[in-house]
Every structure is written in structure tokens, then in C-alpha cells.
Amino acid sequence: xxxxxxxxxxxxxxxxxxxxxxxxxxxxxxxxxxxxxxxxxxxxxxxxxxxxxxxxxxxxxxxxxxxxxxxxxxxxxxxxxxxxxxxxxxxxxxxxxxxxxxxxxxxxxxxxxxxxxxxxxxxxxxxxxx
Length: 130
Prior knowledge:
The chain contains three helices and six strands. The protein is α/β, with parallel strands linked by helices. It has a single domain (about 10-125), classed as HAD superfamily/HAD-like (Rossmann fold, 3-Layer(aba) Sandwich).
């Protein structure tokens, strides 16, 4: 992909956008909101890619709406239905605290690490995505 391309980016929720506090919605992870808004501003398509469902998914969707972060889709890529029946969400990039190589940080009192958005943003800027 070229630097000027619009990317499809799958974003996890718990441990990525918010601290781990499932089934509740945790506190915002530092840097997540600003970076996600910047991705929106550049025209990238964000897919919420989460295990949440029902009311817990609705709580996550409310989080995005309250922070004025636009999602293109939830747990699916609408375009891939044209060329595959696979349930795996196709994206150009996945940002997930459990992904190998994703920069993480530990927060006192939180049982699992969360995404270190400052490093994610730096990499996105280096790659020309932001």
C-alpha cells in the first residue's frame, strides 16, 4: 500500500482502547482517543474487532460515539463478503494488545498490559499512515 492509501484498520477494544475491566468499560488507554480520531481524520476505515456482544458490545459502541470516533464496521468487513465467506475480518492493519509485536505498557492496578499508543502513533507516522 502507498502512504496515501486509505487503510482498513481492525481495532480491539479491551486492553487496546480501554484498560482491562471487562465486563465493564475500563478507563481510556492514554493516546487511544487522539490516535483513533487522527486515523478518522485521514480517512482510514476503522473496524471494531472485539469479542464483546449484546449489552457489552453496546457499551463499547457508546464509548466510540461519546468520543466522536467513527467506526466503518463492527466485527466484519462489509467488502470482503464479495470475495470470501471467511469469518476472519480482513484488514490492512490490526491493533490489539494481544498481538505479537504490538507495543504494550503496564498500568499499576491493572491485571493485564494495554496498548502503548504513543509508540503505535509513532510507527503510524513513520509509515505515513498518519
